[in-house]
Amino acid sequence: MLVTSAIKLFACAIALSSLASAVPVENRDDDSPTYLDPSAEVEDRVEDLLGRMTLEEKMYQLMQGDIQKMLGDDMQLNSTLLKPWGATFAANIDREPLARLINETQSWMINDNRLGIPTIMQSEGIHGWLDVNATMFPSAIGMACTFNPDLVREMADVVGTEANSIGVHNIFAPVLDLAREPRFGRIEEGYGEDTYLTGEMGKAYVEGVQGKARPGSPKTAKHRVAAMVKHFAGFGSSLGGLNLAPVVGGERDMRTIYLPSFKRTIMDGGALSIMNAYHAYDGVPSAIDRHVLTEILREEWGFEGFVESDSGAIANLCDLHFVCDSSFLDPQAAIKALTAGTDMEMGGRPMHYQNIVEQVEKGNLDLSIVNEAVRRTLRVKFLLGLFEVPYGIADYNSTIHTEEHVKIELQMEEEAIVLLENDGILPLNEKKLDSIAVIGPQAGVMQYGDYVPHGMFERGVTPLQGITELVGDEVDVRYAEGCKLWSLDESGFKTAVKAAKRSDVAVVMVGTWSRDQVELWQNVNATTGEHIDQNDLALVGAQLNLVKAVQATGTPTVVVYVTGKPIAEPWIKYNVNAIINAFYPGENGGTALANILFGKVNPSGKLSVSFPTYVGSLPAYYNFPKSGRPISPGMIHANGTLQFGQQYVLGTPEPLWYFGHGLSYTTFEYKSVKLSKTEITQDEKDDIIVTVTVKNSGDYDGKEVVQVYVDDVIASVVVPNKALKGFAKVDIAAGETATVDIPIRLEELEVWDINNKFTLEKGDFVFYVGGSYAEPSFNTTLTVV
Ligand SMILES: *[C@@H]1O[C@H](CO)[C@@H](O)[C@H](O)[C@H]1NC(C)=O
Ligand SMILES: *[C@@H]1O[C@H](CO)[C@@H](O)[C@H](O)[C@H]1NC(C)=O
Ligand SMILES: *[C@@H]1O[C@H](CO)[C@@H](O)[C@H](O)[C@H]1NC(C)=O
Ligand SMILES: *[C@@H]1O[C@H](CO)[C@@H](O)[C@H](O)[C@H]1NC(C)=O
Ligand SMILES: *[C@@H]1O[C@H](CO)[C@@H](O)[C@H](O)[C@H]1NC(C)=O
Ligand SMILES: *[C@@H]1O[C@H](CO)[C@@H](O)[C@H](O)[C@H]1NC(C)=O
Ligand SMILES: *[C@@H]1O[C@H](CO)[C@@H](O)[C@H](O)[C@H]1NC(C)=O
């Protein structure tokens, strides 16, 4: 796929080359300004251009425009609204007009402005570029269940290829917010609860989406698209799970829980841009957090790209966080944010960076701070080759939703599905079944999760379609919706129960729901998504009763969760024959689910987030800190008897399933585990290699996720009971044995110590290795002397 699309790109680059090298008005007399010289070094081009810019031109480089807001009713650009924005949001318009408008906007930037600086066209693409006919992948929380960074890299390459073909250069992804507070509505956008897994997935996404430079770019250009890693940093664990609420934590949590995934993604993945977050951490709003945005990101890590505020995050400083005056465009907002290291302001609310010129002239804002922010923005433009290749390609259609892209999509769907419970009923066999009841409000619909374009929910393979297609004429499929997602009405149960009674097996599909990018903001009902938070994690409406009614028929019952977050329903865990979890799938979700149900594909997904038993037992994440975890559970028995305990009085802090859990149709036997070294000194540099031998001892070919959790036995501060530090996904045929090497970077074993610095402390580190966190097969010890 890479080869063919590269050839097509090249052909089109030639067609556009005369356009791309159009010489801007101002420079027609200057034979060869350095910034327009493709053979000059990036830093020389940046300084040359910066030196030519007026303060007003600099200000516009630090602000984002939006094509939608520059349109008249006739869908034509209104030139009085065009400004030489540093970046331009280009989304939520159909593909045809969008391609034209992107081209026209860019052409205006280059040909109708003094210095001809191209704008960075920005769009969304967490799990597919924001185009209704682009390839749409499962939600990120599902992608993470694949434990397959190579697949995430391929997926992100598809997103980058498709978006870039119409001239988009910057994608607002990956999302690295941790799902440690599952009441928060946006946890479906990230890679689950774990710092390490999130970092590996984020890095793979960046490598895939950024890709290589476009044909026609100078040698100094590195990439075609910039990833915008978000939300920097510590978002997603808000008080009460409420959107925009503060996050409580200190330097140690920031350094050890939140920042490592960002460092891995940004520095090792080479990300070019970053988005800040809406929240305040330890009382400091993210947009003005100089410690994180400058001291850590720039001075410690050496990041050289730009940071953009999330939409409206600068205005929020004044009317949400109240660190400035909300009654007028208080210049303090722009001064504080720019000084802290928020280089560019995204639109969406009144733009505070329009104060820049005046504040510099009044002496309230240091010009050097503005220059540095502009430098970072321009640097990314040169690294993207935008001055040489500013436009998309003519034949963009042929690179979007190709057969190859859809194939990657289906594989990701299949690897994202997690088999939670199975008493042996699965896989189903269509040759032995006469009938199957397909029941539930999720069976006949698509659920995509956040960040899909308007109209997306009308496209895709539903579970019902997937099952019907797979079984063909052999099996009678009896469909009943049973109930609506959003209602307590049980009048549909009768038909569902009848269908179940008359069938050999019943598959009941229940879960949460979300909306597309337009509906999301129209105040319609949904249970997950941006600004849609929950106070409970149980099934909404009549759904649990529907499962109970079907199970009561005595027909073997399989429950499928189609969801954007963990579902806390202990009754279902203990009373049905099998449970499958499908975090919001992509366009071929129904096909993938059918393939799993009928054993055409062996499930290999592992949970990226723990499923709490009840909302009241949060937090449920597996890597809870040592101490504070005595467990003497109580319970309410089915017969109504109350059995009293202490933690909790009538419950348990243990989740239904921990992070890392997932079953297969085959069995994996761990044969041996060996470390490359069992004793090292504190200044050791090489990775520790964990060599694991696993046998597929069952009847199905299958993929196993070999997981390595580490317990830092005695540390100078309290550390997690265990934490994931390495994993590998291995494909093993039935009866075969595989040996896999898993590198553990020593940086991963460092602790933010009692003296507030990262240290590889002396002592024992016990490595637990196996197919899950809860039930490791082996342990072995590394000693640091
Ligand atoms: C363009 O925008 C300006 C400023 O908002 C407005 O006055 C004008 O009517 C618009 N022109 C068209 C053709 O929509
Ligand atoms: C998406 O593709 C379908 C089928 O090819 C087509 O009918 C529809 O117009 C397309 N939608 C957009 C917005 O391009
Ligand atoms: C893009 O715009 C330029 C200048 O307006 C035009 O010459 C060119 O044909 C357009 N290209 C595409 C692919 O639409
Ligand atoms: C892209 O495809 C759409 C329909 O799917 C078509 O209307 C349009 O003309 C195509 N664009 C180009 C540039 O081929
Ligand atoms: C929820 O949304 C659906 C679909 O948009 C609508 O038909 C239904 O009436 C809504 N129900 C409630 C209770 O808001
Ligand atoms: C209720 O069930 C529990 C657990 O099975 C049992 O210990 C208890 O004796 C039962 N109580 C009654 C009143 O049947
Ligand atoms: C570690 O492995 C040994 C066997 O090698 C076993 O006896 C011990 O129980 C294991 N420890 C833990 C905490 O699992």
Could you list some keywords that capture this structure?
single chain, 785 residues, alpha/beta, TIM Barrel, Rossmann fold, Immunoglobulin-like, 3 domains, 17% strand, globular, disordered N terminus, binds 2-acetamido-2-deoxy-beta-D-glucopyranose, Fibronectin type III-like domain-containing protein, Fn3-like, Cellulose_Degrad_GH3, beta-glucosidase activity, Glyco_hydro_3_N_sf
Principal-axes shape call: globular
Could you give the count of β-strands? 27
Task: Describe the sheet with the most strands.
Answer: 7 strands, parallel
Name the CATH superfamily classification of the largest domain. Glycoside hydrolase, family 3, N-terminal domain
Low-pLDDT ranges:
1-23
Find the structural class using helix and strand composition: alpha/beta
Compute the average pLDDT.
95
User: What small molecules does this complex bind?
Assistant: 2-acetamido-2-deoxy-beta-D-glucopyranose
Judging by the overall fold, what is the CATH architecture of the largest domain? Alpha-Beta Barrel
Instruction: Provide the spatial order of strands within the biggest beta sheet.
Output: 1-2-3-4-5-6-9
- Residues in β-strands, percent: 15-25%
Number of helices: 19
CATH class call of the largest domain: Alpha Beta
Helix content: 25-40%
